[in-house]
């Protein structure tokens, strides 16, 4: 393999041939490039002007709580899907319609299909104002439209607002950027601010509407709950009155009656036992011809008088016996008087014993009657206990209704108090200002675009023309006609030569 140290002819002649190509095709390269620049200038002059204004919102992570009560609408969760949802809310047609209403209320006309302002239209209006006065600068009033056209215009306004609106978030914070593009910088700023204000007002409206709906529903529900509470309380009270379940200190009268009868039976049983014991003692002593020393006997006035007389007779007999008048005629009369007194005392004792027996019989009958009353009271208590179960059920139902009614009433009061303290969960930290510079069109961008279009057209035309000229020269070359080998030379298809001037290296 042979390696030549001398550079090839194609490498030596590439730059001069390229310069010759530029000189030879200078018109084909220059004219399309200039035409492209003219196209860029024309596009720049006819492109609509647009200004961009931006308002900045931030979702509040911390909220001010005035009252220690739970709000009707829960706060927004601080999550990425929630933030994306809020961006969609701002960018929705509903929000656009609210913005239209807000702007029209402020006297700002919402743009529809009016022609955008361009560089050409600006200079045209200036020339018109210069020659014809300011009459052309005033816009004609729009003709009256019917309802169908008005609805179409409203939809068109909404579409234009949404198409020129851009709501973004950087993904690292809770900041929302509302950007609007319009031909007028002041209009763009007003629309961007209107979207932010409408969103804040929408948050307040959501809270207030939810609070009002809840308060209205609670008010209607309270009427039903109040009626149910009154019905249940009346039913429980009527049942208690019919069943005789009156209470004192938490105890029913039936239970108090049973307890009282039991106490009386116990007391009467004790008294009866004591009376029987005294009677048995008196009978036992009486059978032994001894005067019982019982309280009833000792306290009897008749027995006391008889015993006093007996004591006098006994004392008189003792005096006669001590005096030795054993055969006195007074002794038999005193003995008979003493026996008579003793018989009277015995009769009084028997009468007292009979009275004790009668008292025992009365006590027994009273106890039997009290036991019968106890059985009746126990039956009434059993019925009262059964009624008490049903009354307790009615009372529980009334208490449950009362608890529900009180909770609803408390919530109703809280909801009414919260109606006037609704606050948005976001704040506007930066109002949109009218832009001082246009966002589009940019002269450099249009010139680069026109230069690129012209350059591509010039290059394509040059390559096409050179390809045609090279094909024609190959057909007319003598070497191709005789098929004789030719000396190595530069490829004319790559670096063709103008036939009128000849090959510079021939």
From TrEMBL:
<dbReference type="InterPro" id="IPR050445">
    <property type="entry name" value="Bact_polysacc_biosynth/exp"/>
</dbReference>
<feature type="region of interest" description="Disordered">
    <location>
        <begin position="478"/>
        <end position="506"/>
    </location>
</feature>
<protein>
    <recommendedName>
        <fullName>Polysaccharide chain length determinant N-terminal domain-containing protein</fullName>
    </recommendedName>
</protein>
<feature type="coiled-coil region">
    <location>
        <begin position="353"/>
        <end position="404"/>
    </location>
</feature>
<keyword id="KW-0175">Coiled coil</keyword>
<feature type="compositionally biased region" description="Low complexity">
    <location>
        <begin position="478"/>
        <end position="490"/>
    </location>
</feature>
């Amino acid at each position: 393999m042979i390696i030549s140290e001398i550079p090839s002819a194609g490498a030596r002649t590439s730059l001069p041939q390229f310069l010759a190509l530029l000189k030879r095709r200078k018109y084909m390269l220059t004219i399309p490039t200039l035409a492209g620049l003219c196209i860029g200038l024309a596009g720049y002059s006819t492109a609509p002007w647009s200004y961009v204004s931006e308002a900045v919102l931030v979702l509040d992570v911390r909220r001010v709580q005035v009252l220690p009560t739970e709000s009707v609408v829960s706060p927004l969760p601080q999550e990425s899907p929630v933030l994306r949802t809020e961006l969609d809310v701002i960018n929705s047609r509903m929000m656009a319609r609210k913005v239209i209403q807000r702007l029209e209320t402020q006297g700002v006309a919402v743009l529809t299909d009016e022609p955008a302002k361009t560089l050409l239209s600006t200079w045209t209006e200036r020339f018109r104002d210069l020659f014809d006065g300011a009459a052309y600068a005033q816009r004609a009033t729009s003709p009256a439209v019917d309802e169908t056209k008005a609805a179409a215009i409203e939809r068109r306004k909404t579409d234009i607002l949404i198409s020129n609106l851009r709501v973004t978030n950087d993904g690292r914070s809770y900041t929302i950027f509302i950007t609007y593009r319009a031909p007028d910088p002041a209009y763009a700023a007003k629309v961007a601010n209107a979207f932010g204000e409408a969103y804040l007002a929408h948050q307040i409206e959501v809270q207030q509407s939810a609070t009002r709906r809840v308060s209205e529903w609670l008010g209607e529900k309270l009427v039903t709950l109040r009626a149910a509470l009154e019905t249940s309380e009346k039913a429980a009270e009527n049942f208690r009155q019919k069943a005789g379940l009156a209470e004192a200190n938490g105890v029913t009268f039936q239970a108090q009656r049973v307890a009282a009868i039991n106490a009386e039976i116990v007391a009467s049983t004790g008294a009866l036992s004591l009376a029987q014991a005294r009677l048995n003692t008196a009978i036992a002593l009486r059978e032994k011809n001894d005067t019982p020393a019982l309280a009833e006997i000792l306290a009897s006035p008749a027995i006391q008088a008889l015993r006093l007389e007996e004591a006098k007779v006994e004392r008189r007999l003792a005096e006669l016996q001590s005096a030795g008048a054993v055969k006195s005629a007074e002794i038999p009369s005193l003995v008979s008087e003493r026996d008579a007194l003793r018989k009277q005392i015995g009769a009084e004792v028997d009468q007292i014993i009979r009275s004790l027996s009668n008292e025992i019989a009365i006590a027994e009958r009273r106890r039997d009657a009290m036991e019968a009353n106890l059985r009746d009271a126990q039956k009434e208590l059993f019925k009262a206990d059964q009624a008490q179960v049903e009354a307790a059920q009615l009372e529980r139902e009334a208490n449950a209704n009362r608890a529900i009614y009180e909770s609803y009433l408390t919530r109703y009061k809280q909801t009414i108090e919260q109606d006037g303290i609704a606050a948005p969960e976001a704040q506007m930290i930066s109002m949109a200002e009218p832009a001082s510079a246009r966002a589009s069109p940019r002269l450099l961008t249009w010139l680069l675009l026109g230069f690129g279009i012209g350059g591509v057209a010039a290059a394509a035309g040059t390559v096409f023309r050179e390809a045609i000229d090279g094909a024609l020269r190959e057909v007319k070359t003598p070497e191709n006609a005789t098929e004789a080998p030719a000396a190595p030379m530069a490829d004319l298809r790559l670096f063709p030569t103008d036939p009128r001037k000849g090959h510079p290296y021939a």
